[in-house]
Backbone:
């Protein structure tokens, strides 16, 4: 399971080796990026909305099935569980790989069908 922490500016501040392997970036490279930087362009707006709701306190956490784009350009499907860390103004994420997109199986944009659940 990949685990990451985002700071107040939404940049990665920490990422375990599993997450680094999933996305193909080192921890130092990830610290220069936000989750939106490794999200395919067509999916970014839906992701931006739920992350802002979390930061504004409208959500305590959410789950999301989404695509991430690895450093090598490969697109992978992941299941995220995202939660706030209020004392630090940070966000934590756990990430599990769902399925890989392969050239013979084109990935469809799920921008319209991204599923976010919260309590």
Residues:
């Amino acid at each position: 399971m990949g685990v990451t922490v985002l700071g107040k500016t939404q940049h990665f501040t920490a990422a375990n080796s599993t997450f680094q392997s999933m996305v193909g970036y080192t921890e130092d490279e990830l610290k220069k990026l936000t989750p939106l930087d490794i999200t395919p362009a067509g999916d970014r707006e839906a992701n931006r909305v739920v992350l802002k709701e979390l930061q504004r306190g409208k959500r305590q956490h959410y789950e999301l099935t989404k695509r991430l784009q690895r450093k090598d350009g490969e697109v992978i499907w992941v299941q995220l569980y995202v939660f706030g860390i209020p004392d630090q103004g940070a966000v934590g994420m756990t990430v599990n790989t769902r399925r890989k997109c392969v050239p013979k199986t084109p990935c469809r944009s799920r921008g319209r069908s991204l599923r976010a659940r919260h309590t």
Notes: The beta strands are 2-6, 12-15, 61-69, 75-85, 90-100, 116-117. The CA atoms of residues 71 and 92 lie 21 Å apart.
